[in-house]
## 1
Amino acid sequence: MSKIQVNPHADDDIVPAVLEDEMQQAYLDYSMSVIVGRALPDVRDGLKPVHRRILYSMHELGLTHDGDFKKSARVVGDVLGKFHPHGDSAVYDALVRMAQDFSLRYPLAEGQGNFGSIDGDAAAQMRYTEAKMSKITQEMLDDIDQDAVDFKENFDGSLEEPELLPSKFPNLLVNGSTGIAVGMATNIPPHNLAETCQGVIRLIEDDDVSNLDLMEDIKGPDFPTGGILRNTDGLRKAYTTGRGKVTISSRFETEEEDGDTRLVVTEIPYMVQKSKILEGTAELVREDKVEGIREIRDESDRHGLRIVIELKRDAQPEIVKNKLMKYSRFQETFGIILLGLVDNQPKVLTLKGLLEEFLSHRKEVVRRRLEYELENAEDRLHILDGLLVALDHIDDVIETIQNSKNTKTARENLIERYELSEDQARAILKIRLSRLTQMESEEIQSEHDELSERVKEIKDILGSDQEILNVIKEEMEYIISEYGDERRTEISDHESGDIDIEDLIEDETVVITRSREGYVKRLPLDTYKQQRRGGVGVIGSETKEGDSLTDVHITSTKSYLLCITNKGQLYWTKAYEIPVSGRYSKGKPFVNFIDLDEDEHVRSVVPCDDLEADDYLAFISKQGYVKRTRLDAFSNPRRGGIRAVNVEDDDDLVRVIRTTGDQDLLIATANGNAIRFDETDARAMGRTARGVIGVKLRDDDYVVDASAGDEDDQMLVVTETGYGKRTDVTEYSRINRGGYGVKNADLSDTTGKVVISRVVNEDDELVLISTEGMVIRVDASDISKYGRATRGVTVMDLQDNDVVQGIAEVSPDDLEESE
């Protein structure tokens, strides 16, 4: 147990306490102070303390919308000196935001000077800018001087400030709010004023209305920057549970001029800086993630936002637009959290719950305002009763006053003679002689009659909850007529872009190449012209110094590319997302398309048309391990990838292949051995397993390739120096996994080691690739068939120091689609 010593010189001030308890209580106190005093808005007026204090200070300074501006520094100083014991930057930043028409749907302050921009430019210093209340702010402060809300002492007890503002409209929904407290956060989007007030009217007319019914009036958020709101399911969830996500898309328009096409953006997502969008888009163009853009420029001016994206002649506008929304901030997700303070306690509310809290607050404000008015009216009516008595006996009253010794005696005589109260007698003595005319008498009588009628009306209203609700309904109708405007944000039922990108992508056969250093590119299949075996090939890629091409895949533009890394993580992307590159380009790093760690590299790529199939992925490692896992286990990868296989530090992945579940696995080693076994010998395992031994290895040997095949297939073997052959799979005896296998090729210094040992079909076309980027395309049938223990013939004529590196098979179906 620790001791907290308040005064080291006074033993009486030493209070024994448990340190953990003191820290817990102190943190809870701090948390509640942040939650209530700074971070979260009150559901009744939708304001945090700093905003409320700013508006009340402006009210006291007389900064009405139809008055003059005053220096922002004057407002900030007034707030700090009277109500807000925090830094001036916090107050000024809040004032600036209340004046920005791109931050608040209905700004609560008017600014004169530089109050920042949608580009993220900061406002000028407070000594340079001026501010006053906007017109709609008056509707939040009306009735504040009529005992409509409670007041509390300020931080030093010298003044009083309102606990909340009367607010005639539900500001929390209308202008929204964001805030991060301790352990919680709020993120309420702005809404259209007319729709929100109409929602209040509907709740008044039917208190059993549901959240979904209210959505017929309050259709969804209405952002000051416009945009298109998508994912109405997320919106319904937010309104019915208090939490949900929606997507906000930019508004694109297509323009044609002199044969050129351009995309013009006139609205962007809420709270996204225009400059960040432009920077991000330019980066995407530089990295070739978005193709078809020739130029981007900002033509925004005081009339509105305008971002112009000039397209290349062969670009499809819808594809470019959808890619921009996918990869850049032209489309953003907005997470809705309807959290606010209810009786100083944080609470997540539904749409109806928010309106009910506002309506309850407004009923209290109207009731207190009417009671205040009634009290003043009855006081005035009491005085008028006395004045009417005096007017009815004017001569006697004057004589009584004249015969009185002094004012006190006159007052006492009037009270005694006409049974008046002291206040009535005082009023009679104060009346001017000019008001004793017939016209003045009639005005007093008229005022008396009107006040009597008003008193009766107020009492009738106060005596009925429905009448109070009718008053609020009239206020809502007035707010709609005076301040209502058209919705800016369009509500769309589409979940994302207007058109699915894949609907616009041509389904064609392409070549995907990968380098050892992690560069990837896409090329048309006809880039590589068919050649006779033994040809020197064409240059397939310009690799960076020290890099080399490792493999090539023939696939469809719409296929998934499953990318498995040295850490055993699996990521996926689509083939069409890999930019088309020229034959001499080295491509783009994989990190541009998948989120790789700094020391993570792609080891294998598996094209797949369907991730829900009943097939398997077989993982083969350099040390001879094999593991099979069902393909559908990888159908929902996360952005950061998912674990596919456990790879030990002394091992590495060689190849990942797709199998049907009833094929043979053939694993080949560098020193010319190969094993064939039924794939079911390696039972299916979970994603995190390492696997089992597939082939035993002798000293200095390692696995170089693997494939899955049937008895009708042939095994293609290619060595480093370009020698190759085909051998019937039946020549490889099927044995149990875990053996050394049989001889796969006759190797020598001339042939080098085995680099490719792959199952092919006689009808296949093959694309061979070398480390120096040379590529040759030949028919499998052009490569002669030999027995297992032979070296074969020259398949690819290589330059000095170049070696064969990778292969891809092109099936007859692929060729037909390509043609």
## 2
Amino acid sequence: MKYVILLLISIISMQTVVAQKPIKVKGVVKTSDGKNLGGASILLYTPGKPDTLRAVSNDKGVFTIANVVPGKVTLIVSFIGYRSFFNEYDYSKSTEDENIWDIAMTPGDNLLEAVTVQAAKIQIKEDTISYSIDSTMYRKNDNVEEVLKRLPGVEVDKTGKVTAQGKEVTRVKVNGKDFFGGDVTTATRELNADMVDKIQIIDDYGDQSAFTGVRDGEAAKTLNIQLKKDKNKGYFGNLTAGVGTEERYLGGVSLNFFNNDRQISIIGNINNTNASNFNFGNIGGPMGATIGAIAGRGGGGFGGFGNTGNNDGINVSKSLGVNFRDEWGKKISAYGSYSFSDRRSSIIQNQTQDNLLSSGNIQNIQNANNYNVNVNHRFQFNIEYRIDSFNYIKFTPQVNYRETDRDNVTDFAFSGISGAKTNDGITTTISNSETPNISGTLLFNHRFKKRGRTFSLNLNAGDSRTESDEDFVNLNTIYALPPFTDSLYQNILQDNTSENLGVRASYIEPLSKKKSLEFNYAYSQQLSGNDRQNYLVNPYTGDQAFQESLSNIFDNTYITNRFGFNYRLNEKKYNYSIGLAVQPATIQTNSVTGKFSSKQNIVNFFPVVRYSYNFSRSRSLSVNYNGNTNQPSFTQLQPVTDSSNPQFIVVGNPELRPEFTNTLNLRYNNFDFISGNVFFGNILASFTNDKIVNNVFQKGPGSQETRYLNSNGFFTLGAFYAVSRPYQNRKYVFTLGGNLTYNNNLSFIADEKNKGKNLILGQRLAFDYRLKKWLESNLTFNFNIINNKYSINEQLNTNTQAYTISHNSRIFFPKSFILNYDLEKVFNVGLADNVTTNPFIINAALEKQFSKNKNLSLKLQALDMLNQNIGIARAVTGNTVTDTRTNRLGRYFMLSAIFRLNKFVGKAPQQNSMMMGPPGSPGMIRN
């Protein structure tokens, strides 16, 4: 009987295969008056099937779509200037080719009001999400930032920070190359939207990973802006000048010259409106999770107000930058940038910090007045040498220089459990520092004649030094019986050094067309040193006396050797990697002044598991596990008591071991071609062994001492999702997104373990609306809840809530008038009394565009009309909760003129790969 059943199943299966033999669908696209229409876009969609078949009609209007599975299908034909054609056909019983003769295109405008075909708008492939950009997604003179605000799964706040799939974007590229050193806001605000063909969000594991296809470590979110092929020859830019009330001013120039492969960009700006061009932080590095900023950080919408007034403090900025790109012959590509910034900031902060100590909850209220001057220079260059089709070299040197002057005055007041004041006082700090930094990487890729066999070598080195001179005064009144005052006048000289050297080699041996083995080796050497000289100063004579007990000479060396292998399988629908690495490490510390020396030998194991399944071009699932280490800083290691600030004493621990973190990440992405519905989901679990935590002791009234030790039990669980659903050709777009994070923080209070359970819940609901061509509007509701519970003492348990409602619109009037407005109301619950505020921010701008090309504009802006712009933030650690209120730029009015340059005469260039690698290899970016 079982053989009969198997035979019947086989026959049914054969019949099913025969019945589903693909067919061809042919047709002719004509206008309503019978003329053939060439160049029309044809899509054939099968309900229930994720893929969409595409074709373009030839000059006679004829098209052919092959590999059509028999069944009910929907045909969509679109052409600019004509209404889109929709019709359904039933080919369930078809065994031969089918012809369509009833396509008639009627004149109409389908740019904004009619149907925009959604197919191929989003493509998902492993670590890359690619958005196709068309003219329906922006207005004339919009920049790239306005486009990003309309992409599902992407958020842009008012400072220009870009978040994609719940993670901050830390680096930007243009056509696969760094633009101004990778500054995100520089590219998104300086490049015109009408130049963009595609925007890619990439989980970037580095250049070497892009070549080998092996992912290792934590990925950085990278934005790649792919320009249209006909924007390769010409010039574009802006000239801006403005003057306003409250002595506000701004002036800016942005000039870009493109001549095929040669591209030169110049950016200059001077203002006192809190605007800035460049970010001189750690570009491209992995970003840690933040506990949360409350109030005034909403994003999305329109308006073009940029980051004006949304940075903390009052800032005067000068900046200048040059970006260069060229092809030196057929084999060498060169590109790089120089950036300069002079930023002077006046910052006033009110802060309430609750500290959990052994005696209970101690509160510290501080009021600080800071004046900072930061001068930055950054030079970065890249040379790519394509020796031949088998060998590739990339050399990237970088030089940074930072000079900082700081003048700070802070008054403080500590109160105990009963609420009575224990001590108060004032600290004054005047300091200056210089930080030169030079680094470089050299990458060599070699592909053997045997397909799939490759070798890659990456060398990196860096040297950084910080020299500082600080005058520190601490006046502290202690309310004992009787009260008395301690005074401390110090001069502190420090020379911190950091050197690193690294080598990573990778060899891939193909086992078959789909299988391969990767063997890798990595060597890393990190040297850090701290030379600290502390002098007590006589406030009356100015004489200085060297204090050996407060001074320190300390060195730390951390050396690792890592050996690993990975097995990789590539199938059409899925691929996976399984690997293991072992890393012996040596940590050696030496304290000259502390007369202490220590050496540790540690071995860590790094399992690597990565699985990716592509259901279709628009739906994928990936699972990724990896491990990484984190070395303690020299401040945490040096065994010398640092009591230069008697309220916060620090003692290092030379026996600290590096942290080891295991991370599991699961991600699911889905996009429906026809409806445009989008879903992004991500689940993260992270567990850290030997977590470096604080061990805090109370040393007296208003004084605590922090030590460091390793502990287990720290973990983070997180989830993120984003859902976007458009209606009536994106006339209405609803977006729902949220994140949930649970942190099991650890700390010690006088050697007693304290668990801090931290729950963060955030939700965002946005509604975008377009009415024909004259109105674009956005309404957004955000709420964030931060809940903290501590195991030792419930006094520090908190529950904070923040609700934000924002609404903004652009209204296009006749005669080229444009009205922008931006409303944002914030409600904060649970913050400290001296910090909490519920600001209502109202911004508006009226712009008049002149000339036929609208390249000249006059704009009248009103910023923060109610004068309520305040920055509010909460930070949570193992034993502290800190609420901070910071001043921001308040109400002013400004009249500015903008002259826009935009002229292109280029043709589409040939395609070239950014770096050598197998076609279609994961992570490859093409330009």
## 3
Amino acid sequence: MLNAPKRLLLQLSAALLIAFVPAAAQTATPTPAKKAAQTSANTAAKPAASAVPKIPFEKYKLKNGLEVILVEDRRLPMVAVNLWYHVGPANERAGRTGFAHLFEHMMFQGSQHVGDDEHFKILEGAGASDINGTTDFDRTNYFQTLPSNQLELALWLESDRMGFLLETLDHAKLANQRDVVRNERRQSVENAPYGLVEERMFQELYPKGHPYHAYVIGSHADLEAAQLADVREFFQQYYAPNNASLAIVGDIDKAQAKQLVEKYFGSIKAGPPVPKPDAKTPPITAEKKVTVTDQVELPRVYMGWISPQIYKPGDAEFDLIAKILGGGKSSRLYKKLVYEKQIAQDVMAQQYSLILGSTFYIQATAKPGVTPEQLQAAIDEEIKFFRQNGPTAEELTRAKNSIESTIIRNLETLGGFGGVADRLNQYNHYLGDPGYLEKDLARYRNATAAAVKAAAARDLRDNARVIVYGVKGEKVINDIPKSADEAPKTADAKPQDREPWRATQPKPGPSSKLTLPVPSQFKLENGLTVYLVPQTKLPIVAANLVVLAGSEANPIDKPGLANFTADMLDEGTQKRSTLQIAEDLDQIGATLGTAATADNASLTLRTLKKNVNEAFAILADVALNPAFAEKELDRVRKTRLTQILQQKDNPNALASKVFYRTIFGDKHPYGFIDLGTEAATQRVTRADLSGFWSKSYVPGNSALVVAGDITEAEVRELATKYFGAWKGSGATARLPEAPAAGGRKIVLVDKPASPQTQLRVGMPGIARANPDYTAVDVMNTTLGGLFSSRINMNLREKNGYTYGAFSRFFARRGQGPFFVGTGVRTDVTAPALKEIFSEIDKLAAEGVTPAELVIAKDSIARSLPGNFETNPAAAGSISELFVYSLPLDYYRTLPDKIQAITAEQVKAAAAKYLKSGSMVVVAVGDKAKIQPELEKLNLGPIEQRDLEGAPLSPKQ
């Protein structure tokens, strides 16, 4: 999300955040720390300064106090509207935790001139590609990126909920969103591995009553106790123009934008003065150590310290410390714990910067057989050495280059126009200066080794920290029953409409010419296909090397081989070690990822333009010269086996894993997750990996896709220089047929004491080349492809069963799966399943309404520019042309094809592909609580499977 690389639990979102294909994260693999190479405190080499991107903005203030930030950028017909309210848990009082986040949800429920649950539907129909709201400890933000001719629509919606929300806020809406937020807590904290463990760290760092003591999401007790009067009071105090800032970035005319801002926000009255958070964060003067039990296979250690406040002296130094100690493969803790000693599965460090006192923390997961005490001792040794000696010159240079490149890349990768808007709003929120980018980068450029060492010595003391062990055991959840909501005895009087003109939804302005990119294409003499989409706004280049060597090519007895091969590519080459690859990338501030999914393998490079030559040299070395060294193979094998073990902790991952195996079986490559199985991982040899690579990683089977600030001549030169000598024609894998769907059945996977049931409902779907693909896409958009889709609105907004629900056809090169996915409260598993089938059957029988058809088609077609908003997005979109053999002008002609889809075609697609009588249900949850109610549904036979998806006998 925003600011920090890890906010899965700390920052919460009102939108649907369900991972479509859960899989264990790949683990980095570092080396021993080079303790002998310490340098003088002030002699660290400074990184070569990048040209700071210029973002010409204008900031002004309305009479009511609303601050407005405008940036005109005409490269795409899109605009980002980004509104920050200066309120978060930092402003909450004891007993009212979670109010800011609860209100983030309430703001999407309709206002005086916008109907209930219409906010997402209106924006999705307008083609918005990025709609959400997030809450962090210090602020709440709302954002949308949409076609620029719909700017007035976004301002109408944002202003109406700022100025006219209370007119429609009632007990029913509050009760519904309390349910949704509590489901979110169950899903993202209580049913997530180590969620309760991490929460405890914050509870120990900040005393009870401190705004940061509770998680952003709050407690079940406080959420359930929230009354309408409390919520109204909170809104009136904080959700006012004098406590907000609005950033508009994109294809705008600033004079016209100012008129629209004045029209929609100018008449909203300022709220009362907003008191600044004044909580004092007491220092920790003695080490605290606690143990929390959780349903996890491996111990995890958290260490936390109170560190310098955001943008205050020392904050930048702690970002550098985080990068040097635990920021990837080149970091000290990765090298020592993961690579050399191999006692940790993963380790990371982060400076989580906040206004009342930041949190610096280290997180490490133990390998099987390793105790948390052993892990802590190894971490302590590295921290002690760092306090005493500080960073080496090389480490500091790499950290500076990496952080600076990340900040610049994030201007686009965090949502393109939205990334710029959010960065400007962040600077404005904390500093009052949207133009702080150059000064921000200077904080890191000017940091010395002496300053970094001094910061560590001052604050990373053993007697100033909290240590939390997460170990296997009973998961203790402080949930409380849902209260019986009493309807008010008298209905609230309907307020008089102060500005009835707002009831008319604004019409879109004249459309900017939508011309989606058609990439240039050429081939090298060796058969390598090269695509280019030039985008010159920022000095950034993204490159994907795509190889048709995905899981579909796995031998049936070696599931996971394609992914294992890709995993090994950056684990050493003929001339670079594992660690040298990581260090060389950090030295130039580039990133390189390797992966293999069902359809293809890929190497994804992200770099600043000035370093593109060095970055391509590393990319080519990794792709063309992997060593597959036995030493590294053995280490990575252990890591992958541990990842497979960890999947037992994650109900979301288990549900998808068991679902794939159930519908495709053990003789089909799609029947396994990309990671493979424990048995297959044990069997893989160096010869298997080398053989798979030699056969599949050839230029005739591959494409180099480049997007960014680079010319065709430059790409030709780079491609020829680094890939011209590559040889091999290659042949793609033969795609197996999916097994015929059988009868409907329920598969239960028992996870005792789970607060939720993870559900998957589906069957084999379609291939990407299926001529019905576009009609199916439009059909599924109505069923479960949008926030405002039928399934999500039913399960989340109507019934409060879930935090979110979706459906998707995973159209692959072969016939991929279709499924509905959601996590529901345990006690409503059966009713939720009944509603899912009801929605599927209704759509299959009746098709879509005219209004739904318009929304579905417009949401797909009008959001297509978002596929090219950033260089990584453009590279990813163009990569699909190669993987699925699509024409160069596919995206340019796609809007017309989408708009040509008829209601009859959608109904036919639904009837053809939504066969509920052939769908499998996978339910991962507390069997004792959910099975009796599932049996009453009479949906089909119920069978039990283990955590690997293997059938169990009835006695088991």
